[in-house]
Amino acid sequence: MTSLAISVKDLSKKYESGFAVSHANFEVPLGTICGFVGPNGAGKTTTIRMLLGLISPTGGTAEILGESISHPEKYLSSVGAMIEGPAFYPALSGEENLKVLATLGGFPVERVNELIATVGLAGRGGSKYKTYSLGMKQRLGIAAALLPNPKILILDEPTNGLDPEGIQEVRDLLKKLASNGTTVFVSSHLLSELELISEYIVMLRKGEVVFAGTMKELLLQQQPVILVKTEKLADLNKIVEIAQADGHHAIIRSEVAHIEGPAEWAGTLNRKAFDAGITLTQLAPQLPNLEETFFEMTGDRS
Amino acid sequence: MRIVFAEWRKLRRPTLFLGTLGAALFFTGLTNTFLYLMIDSEQGNGDRGRQIGREVLNLAGGSVYGFSSVGGLLGIIALCVFAAQTAQEYTYGTLRNLLVRQPGRVRILLGKLIAMKIFALILVVIAALVSIGISYFLSDRAKVSTELWFTPEGFQEIGKTLLNVSISVIYFGIVGMVLGLLLRSPISAISIGVLWLLIIENLIGAVKPVTLEWMPGNQLSTIAQGGSPELAYSHALILGSSYVFVGAIVATVLFSRRDVAN
């Protein structure tokens, strides 16, 4: 019995226009929540499609629950997935749509109503899918992914279109599933959400894995940052000069100076600013977060 | 069987089932009404202006003559349904859901085909019953004798016609499915299929009638009619089956190997 839910070795997908995914390597242990992040077009969906047997890799291999992705029939009954948003038959009700998938997969049809309630669609299961809001469609997509009572749940942007309450519900649901032993592999642009729930992170950039490991390891790789605001906007440049004179990298972004350096250097900066006649209105040492790290590692601010 | 039942859940929805049945019964009623009420018209009362007289309708197969004539139109309805049901999996993006739940692609195709065949056969049987009913109802008015219609020979004719129309309708449906798989868009699949079968084949046939011996739509319609004065049943069955078989193989190979990237 493997301890890995997903193991990707040198996986590539090359089109005529170039590599969508290039020699990707990463592992996701069983029972964890793993965030899968990258800018648009980084190759996340292509990787997910390869893992689900929807497209064939042009190189490398991968295993899901110890089974090669060249034989998806061996593991897909244990995998729930929602890829690139929900997709259902508009003329059927949400309930009927789930019953089609339950029948197809050989799962108990009785589970459908329970799942509809789990994702917060109780009372609307009988309505036609085409009448659903984006958030409701997303919830139905999550319900469909949960149909097989999966060992691995692969979700592509599950919180798209959800309101803050819905996002929190999805977060709680994923945590609950993980605590029950389900491995969750989730791609999302809501990095702050991923940071709250993910133990593991796989980061892609232009088809290449730029980081794969624990969230802790990722954040430790980054320098802490001190955020500084001054009473007079013009003084920000002087703050940057002070930081650079002490050997710290500093930039101004959105009227805030971002200075890379340990938290204890904040006291030194405060004294030097005072000596230079600068009044600080904010001096906040900040540990790097996933969002900052993401921008740093992918060079993407879109 | 799971795939057949899953597909059936989609096919049985009232708007699709009753809508398709309504179209099938409309054409059945129209064809039979023309056949009997215009029996003395000089413009003809059958397919392509043919004159179908009482001497033909009085025979044992008279009860299903109208039904066999409408077989081609039932086939076009089947083509539209099969094409739409197949291609919509691409346009709705639902194919990825199906393949995640059932990765056996050939199995998916076979399951869908069996469910759609059942759907088509139900339509054919209902259309046959309605067609025979209308024929019987109008026979008196058209002075057509029904004496031989319900004899053992008459029932044999009914069975034979039902079989031929069923083969034809299913073949048309498979053509629709092939177009749906190749074009991945219901509108393209249906419009190209219908345009070819109803217009292009007839135009080419009008300019050069000998080409109709080889046109796929004409083969399938002729199967429904159990042969025609211009085309032998065996020729239509062999050539029609060959077209359908080759198309099905090409579409299956493409479907099982193609990336599902949308």
Task: Describe this structure as you would to a colleague.
Chain A is α/β, with parallel strands linked by helices and 302 residues long. Chain A has 10 helices and 14 strands. In chain A, the strands form 3 sheets. In chain A, strands 6-7-8-3-9-10 form a 6-stranded mixed beta sheet, with helices on both faces. In chain A, strands 2-1-4-5 form a 4-stranded antiparallel beta sheet, with helices on one face. Chain A has a 4-stranded antiparallel beta sheet with strand order 12-13-11-14, with helices on one face. In chain A, a hairpin with a 2-residue loop joins strand 9 and strand 10. In chain A, helix 2 packs across helix 3 (111-118). The two termini of chain A are 41 Å apart. The mean pLDDT of chain A is 88. By secondary structure, chain B is mainly alpha-helical. Chain B has one domain. Chain B is built from 11 helices and no strands. Chain A binds chain B through residues 49, 52-56, 72-73, 76, 79, 81, 83-85, 87-92, 96, 99-101, 103-106, 144, 147-148, and chain B through 2-3, 5-6, 9-10, 13, 15-16, 88, 92-94, 96-104, 259-261.
CATH superfamily of the largest domain in chain A: P-loop containing nucleotide triphosphate hydrolases
User: Helicity of chain A, in percent?
Assistant: 25-40%
Main sheet summary of chain A: 6 strands, mixed
- The oligomeric state of the chains shown is heterodimer
Integer count of domains of chain A = 2
Task: Identify the CATH class of the largest domain in chain A.
Answer: Alpha Beta
CATH architecture of the largest domain in chain A: 3-Layer(aba) Sandwich
Instruction: Give, in spatial order, the strands making up the sheet with the most strands of chain A.
Output: 6-7-8-3-9-10
Overall shape of chain B: it is globular
The total count of strands of chain B amounts to 0
Distance between the termini of chain A: 41 Å
Order of helices and strands of chain A: EEEHEEEHHHEHEHEEHEHEEHEH
Total domains of chain B, how many?
Answer: 1
Helix content of chain B: over 70%
The major beta sheet of chain B can be summarized as: none
Structural classification of chain A:
alpha/beta
